Amino acid sequence: MKLLIKRNQDTGFMGGISFILEAKVELTQEESELVKKYKAHKEVLYSAGSRQYTINDLLSGSRDKCKDITILLNNEEVYKNACEHFKTYLEVMRSFGGEEVIEY
User: Fold this and answer.
1) pTM of the predicted structure, to 2 decimals
2) Is the pLDDT score of 60 beyond 90?
3) Where are the domains positioned within the chain?
């Protein structure tokens, strides 16, 4: 899995600057097959208030427009955290049919 992040800026009509964050996830063939096999597209990876990101949202790509760099950086962290959760989902999907041994 790869998280692709693009940062841009835009100038408004009144001369103010806004910042644009685009994020999209690319999967390997095996990862794509796992998501399809387990019909996991609608799984929620991140939720805070009214904001949610699903596996499908990450695969389709997302575009955020912000007035502040701090918000842009916070949004980047949200995408990174969502990808960490996604990675865990993929690891669990790979594990079915096998056995895990945990030693203490």
Assistant:
1) 0.84
2) yes
3) 2-95
